[in-house]
Amino acid sequence: MLMERAIHLQVSLLSTAVARNVHCKWLLGIGRNIGRCSVEQAELWAIYDELQFAWDLKWKEVTVDTDCATTINNILDGLKRYRNRDSISRIQELCKGDWQVLIKQISREANFASHILVGIMKEFPINPQVFHVTPVKVVDQIYLDIQSLHSNSIDISISL
């Protein structure tokens, strides 16, 4: 299961993703200090990074959880919109691979581990960072997110 979230911090944006297995155990975290861009672009970068890492690791089934319905709709609408066309195109191309990808909306309450990871990412350069070990600041929040995920379900999802 993958979760993502991007938020605005001062003048730059960061995107993060937390990858967990079906038993909700931490697999890895991914973060990127993007620099200046829109929140929508940061959301798309987070989804792209998660999918690219999952593809590189040869995962066959991936669920991308996002708390941003607009991002899901933009991926569905595809190249109809000029804005963010390149990012959406890259995500759609990854989804065409030999694997199953599900992108679904979750509540913000089930996504705070990624928010904490954003705070950690402030210290890193623009290149993507991978966290193979759960950062201490995130450990307790992972379990709270799991509880929120099960109690705050939202039924908007797409399969690509």
Automatic annotation (TrEMBL):
List, for all copies, the residue spans of the domain called RNase H type-1. 17-117
User: Which superkingdom, per the lineage?
Assistant: Eukaryota
Q: Name one Pfam family in it.
A: RVT_3
Concerning InterPro entries, the annotation shows: RNase_H-like, RNase_H-like_dom_plant, RNaseH-like_sf, RNaseH_domain, RNaseH_sf
Gene3D superfamilies to which the protein is assigned, alphabetical: Ribonuclease H-like superfamily/Ribonuclease H
Q: What is this protein called?
A: RNase H type-1 domain-containing protein
Taxonomic source organism:
Gossypium arboreum (Tree cotton)
